[in-house]
Design goal:
The chain is an alpha/beta fold. The chain has helices at residues 4-7, 38-49, 54-71, 98-110, 135-147, 188-196, 216-234, 255-263, 274-282, 293-306, 318-332, 349-353, 361-370, 372-393, 407-413, 433-443, 458-478, 482-500, 516-532, 570-581, 613-636, 640-652, 667-673, and strands spanning 123-125, 129-130, 152-157, 160-166, 174-178, 243-247, 266-271, 288-290, 310-315, 339-340, 399-400, 447-453, 508-514, 539-543, 551-552, 586-591, 601-609. Strand 6, helix 8 and strand 7 (266-271) form a beta-alpha-beta unit. It starts with a helix and ends with a helix.
């Protein structure tokens, strides 16, 4: 296939494309183990074949059955397109609306092999963050988008395009739900079966909402996290000579190496998958690579002494690395690490998200599919060793935090010593980075705002960088509170460093942590630049679901909510609905993401700026709600910074009226009336 026109013409059936199977030379998703009964296998096949007319079903049934039994899922490899998968300039898509073309641009970026973790299995990041469940869904979605008018909405059920439905021109052009399983059935075991049946999907966060922008998306968050960890734990602004140890270079975790360089520290990142390590090294995100622990420790010592800026990839298991650091401490008295975390995909620990230290990478992949129970036991034993090493180092001046990947949650379930005495069930011995480092940022309305220049022209991105910097500098000049100024200054530094470090992988995109005022001002400036011709094509605004209002996740985004509502999902659901009502081009609501299936509800949006007054009005209205919703919720939970911010926002907008909490004046009254 040679053109986007053909890609948008519907499923290729006559003739059928050649079945080339799995590609060589690209990473592939681990084999899934759904443990289907014979009746469920038949149902999975029946569900897959309903995309195809009867005259091709017999041929396809045989190969789909082989895929199901060999890989645990029907991906429909025959229909994986031969076109170069990337974000093409928006004007090249054969569409009736610019909104549809922008969505196509975003979808193809999520599946770009330079961006996606397992492109042929339609996984963007996180080990199982799907864009679609199978390739038939991709073809149908592209066809629907090419036909869609301004008075239709495309409805997506967990990767499946239900169809185009008549709607208002003011309604979203696309509404996505992923993994909306009835709560009592939202378990990992049930998920594996439902995914194999082709009836639900784990969209992670920005994979299934088509808003992923490559590892840059988490580079900025990691930069801010490490900077603020240095401030909080080490009491310093300059991280030169300080050592940050972590793991993961695959999907989003690939950001860690670049973040270490940007903040000026020494980053040592372990990765078991050599392909992921090589990919980051070739992209320039990783400065050096070694498979020798001896060399790793020697190089770490040298860089520490010289205060070098270094990102060093260790090809091996992170547990070996942590245990070696303990050995160095116990035998030499030298603590070689200052800060630590983990970005393995621990939300999916038994299906490729976490590799046990007892096995090689290939041995683990084999055992994972041949004996899942034995593999699970080894993972949990490895987690206990992992925590034991961290606990020893933490007895010294070393600080560890959970990066919201369910690492401490899974370690607890494995029986590791992570208990925090007297704490509630969302707290562990080590804090979530939201609790200690990023939580106050969310309460002030700061979160991962992003945009994509659909022209594909780097010059357009440069213009937006200048605009965003100017907006933040003007805000500082006009006067802001010290805490807000610090965040703005971090963002100005980030934009300058991002351009210098060539962080774009895939679409021409940028991310920065901004508050409500900053987001609206940047959006308005970009829209006006499109209208004047300074930017040559529409720009898509979005954000990570991991944001002020987008996610209810008691072990991550809402882990610092202490009024008992951390396990409630009203905020994320209301955000999804509210964005749709206020002008979003598309909206998405997901079960799972970050911490894992059944552990979180999250949502996101895409908003196309095209230079029109209507686009500016939508941006002002929708972005204001998208932040204020979460700040108001955090205020009601008792957060004093959120209280301050929402009161200030109400003063600036007479249409905003929020219920404010009253503090209990005398805590003794509670104990007295309950006779405690």
């Amino acid at each position: 296939m040679s053109s986007l026109q053909e890609l948008c013409s519907g499923l290729p059936l006559r003739p059928l494309p050649e079945n080339r199977g799995r590609w060589a030379g690209v990473p592939h998703a681990p084999v899934r183990t759904p443990d289907l009964s014979p009746e469920e296998e038949q149902l999975a096949l029946r569900n897959a074949l309903r995309y195809f007319p009867p005259d091709v079903q017999k041929l396809l049934a045989l190969e789909f059955a082989q895929e199901l039994r060999q890989f645990g899922h029907i991906y429909m490899y025959r229909f994986c397109p031969s076109i170069e998968m990337r974000a093409y300039p928006i004007e090249q898509y054969p569409c009736r609306t610019r909104a549809a073309a922008a969505i196509m641009h975003m979808i193809m970026n999520n599946l770009d092999p330079a961006v996606a973790q397992f492109p042929q299995e339609l996984v963007t990041y996180g080990g199982n963050g799907q864009v679609f469940s199978n390739w038939a869904q991709f073809w149908l979605t592209m066809s629907y988008l090419s036909k869609m008018t301004e008075e239709q909405t495309l409805v997506m059920y967990s990767g499946h395009p239900l169809g185009l439905f008549p709607s208002s021109s003011h309604a979203p052009r696309l509404v996505i739900t992923n993994g909306m399983v009835i709560p009592n059935y939202s378990s990992r075991t049930e998920y594996e079966k439902l995914f194999a049946l082709g009836v639900t999907m784990y969209g992670q966060m920005t994979a299934g909402s088509y808003c992923y922008i490559g590892p840059q998306g988490i580079v900025h968050g990691t930069v801010l996290t490490v900077l603020n960890a240095g401030r909080r734990y080490l009491g310093i602004e300059d991280l030169a000579g300080k050592v940050f140890v972590t793991s993961g270079l695959g999907g989003m975790s690939g950001a860690q190496a670049k973040a270490a360089v940007i903040v000026g520290c020494i980053g040592v990142i372990a990765e078991v998958d050599k392909a992921a390590l090589v990919k980051r090294h070739q992209q320039g995100w990783l400065m050096e690579v070694t498979d020798s622990l001896d060399h790793c420790i020697a190089r770490l010592r040298e860089a520490r002494k010289k205060k070098e800026v270094l990102s060093l990839g260790y090809h091996g298991n992170v547990v070996d690395l942590w245990e070696r650091l303990v050995h160095e401490l116990d035998t030499t008295g030298e603590l070689l690490v200052d800060l630590g975390s983990d970005q393995t995909s621990c939300h999916n620990p038994f299906n490729g998200g976490y590799y046990p230290v007892q096995l090689s990478f290939s041995e683990a992949q084999s055992l994972m599919s041949s004996n899942p129970a034995a593999f699970k036991n080894l993972v949990q034993e490895s987690l206990r060793r992992h925590i034991s090493a961290i606990n020893r180092l933490a007895q010294e001046k070393f600080f560890f935090w959970d990066y919201g990947n369910a690492f401490l949650l899974e370690a607890q379930r494995a029986g590791a010593d992570v208990e925090k005495k007297g704490a509630n069930k969302t707290e562990f011995r080590y804090p979530s980075y939201v609790q200690h480092i990023m939580g106050d940022i969310f309460s002030q309305g700061f979160g991962p705002f992003r945009w994509v220049c659909t022209s594909g022209n780097p010059q357009d991105l440069t213009v937006t960088d200048h605009l965003a910097t100017s907006v933040l500098e003007k805000a500082i000049a006009d006067g802001v509170k010290a805490s807000v100024k610090l965040q703005y200054m971090d963002n100005i530094r980030w934009i300058r460093e991002a351009a210098k470090h060539q962080l774009v992988v895939g679409s021409q995109a940028r991310i920065l942590y901004s508050d409500q005022k900053g987001r609206v001002a940047i959006a308005v400036a970009i829209n006006q630049a499109i209208a004047s011709g300074k930017i040559k094509a529409p720009v898509v605004l979005s954000r990570d679901h991991h944001d002020v209002s987008g996610t209810d996740s008691p072990f991550r985004e809402t882990s610092n909510i202490y009024d008992g509502s951390a396990f409630c999902a009203d905020m994320a659901v209301q955000n999804f609905v509210g964005d749709a009502c206020r002008g979003a081009t598309w909206v998405a609501l997901h079960n799972g993401g970050g911490v894992g299936w059944g552990e979180v509800i999250n949502g996101g949006f895409g908003l196309v700026l095209d230079g029109t007054p209507e686009a500016e009005q939508k941006a002002r209205m929708m972005l204001s709600w998208d932040v204020s919703n979460g700040v108001a919720r955090r205020c009601w939970s008792g957060n004093p910074k959120a209280y301050e911010i929402i009161c200030q926002t109400m003063q600036e907008n007479s249409g905003l009226v929020v219920t404010l909490p009253h503090e209990v004046a005398d805590e003794q009254v509670l104990r007295q009336v309950l006779r405690l």
